[in-house]
Amino acid sequence: MEALVNDKLLQQGTIAESGPKTVDPLPSDGDFAESNARIKHKNRRKGPLNVSGPVKGYSEAIRNFWYPIAFSADVSGETMVPFECFEEPWVIFRGKDGRVGCVQNSCAHRACPLHLGSVNDGCIQCPYHGWEYSTDGVCQKMPSTKFVNVSIRALPCLERDGLIWIWPGGGIPEPTIPSLLPPTGFTVHSEIVLDLPVEHGLLMENLLDLAHAPFTHTSTFARGWPVPSLVKFCTPAATLKGFWDPYPIDMEFHPPCMVLSTIGISKPGKLEGNTTSECSKHLHQLHVCLPSTRGNTRLLYRMSLDFLPILKHMPFIDYLWRYLANKVLDEDLRLVLGQQDRMLRGENVWNQPVAYDKLGLRYRLWRLSIEAGSESASNGR
Q: Which residues does the annotated region (Disordered) include (predicted)?
């Protein structure tokens, strides 16, 4: 994967470093149309890749990964969790043995959404005529009529490290699942799930970019942050993870749609030291950006701390964490939604990348390489 990314970078040129730029002289009166056309052509020529226009359909290759879709704590014995993944409706629930299953959210009889029904003795019951399905999608009961063998689609589904995972692709599932647990010594304080009206790739690139913090998050965690003269993302060990300079923040993109980060802090909203190892207290974050549809994302957020574990037991603390998370997210969403609007109108969201765009750019190149491989395989057939 890293070789694919590096090859792509070499083919398309290096990222522009920050520094002074030459500016074309202003056109004379009457030449604005010609000047604008020249600027537009010039900008398109400089970009290392073009991400513009309507969001393309999802390739089979991008589906062939394990995707976290819910937190284990949100799925109890009689709970159903409906969701969309790659523009298809699904629902998860626990069977009689307590194991979780994922089936299509449509009854085989009349296509009624199953999540409107209930879970009875480990089977999900359709609210329309009472047909019941087990976690493997096989119909177990068919009241008021002669029983026939009927099934609905089911996805490979398992539970690991407090998360529920599915394999939505047609390929053979990988035998291992990466661990997304926080490091030793951290306590999980909050797990939040949100459905957002934004394409998951744009949200991923926002999460992989920290240079925007002192300009965007001025009323939340970056309030009072100074604006550095230079921001860099350093990758000493691998191309998809590293640390931010001058911020004490480590960050990693974990394919296909996860971002892990560790932030060194001294007190809320304040940074301490230049690296996480210099800090005495840390906040660890997991973001999962599940592609629901071409314009919507299911976001899973987990926050952990390595200090003050007693906070977890304070009354109403969950409401406080949710309020703070939503406030930070709102600061991002108004910008990313605007960015999405411009992209759909044909503007290139990767028109002029600079040095601190490194991790977000490498995510995009990884995704394009996966999709290009899928197209090559299809053409070969």
A: 16-50
Burial of 283 per CB tally in 10 Å (0-12, 13-18, 19+): buried
Q: Cβ(250)–Cβ(238) under 8 Å?
A: no
Question: For residue 346, what are the contacts with CB-CB under 8 A and spacing of at least 6?
Answer: 52, 53
User: First-to-last CA distance in the chain?
Assistant: 23
Positive/negative CA dihedral, 198, 201, 207, 209: negative
Express each pLDDT in 98-109 by its tens digit. Answer: 999 999 999 999
- CB–CB of 364/51 below 8 Å? yes
pLDDT tens track for 183-198: 999 999 999 999 999 9
Predicted pLDDT at 243: 85
**What is the Cα–Cα distance from 228 to 320, expressed in whole angstroms?**
30
| Angstrom distances, CA of residue 31 to CA of 24, 42, 161, 282 | 13, 16, 62, 55
d(CA 208, CA 204): 6
Condensed to tens digits (0 to 9), the pLDDT of residues 246-259 reads 888 899 999 999 99
**In angstroms, rounded to a whole number, what is the distance separating the alpha carbons of residues 217 and 227?**
12
pTM to 2 decimals?
0.84
Whole-number percent of the chain with pLDDT over 70:
82
Helix (H) or strand (E) holding 69: strand 67-71
- The per-residue pLDDT for 37 is 54
Name the nearest CA neighbour of 271 among 338, 336, 226, 328. 226
Contact 227, 214 (CB under 8 A): yes
Contact 311, 305 (CB under 8 A): yes
How many degrees, rounded to 5, is the angle at CA 62 between CA 61 and CA 66?
A: 105
Residue 344, phi then psi, degrees to nearest 5: -65, -25
Per residue in 39-70, pLDDT tens? 555 544 445 689 999 998 999 999 999 999 99
- CA 18/CA 5 separation, integer angstroms: 22
Q: Is the dihedral of CA 337, 338, 339, 344 positive or negative?
A: positive
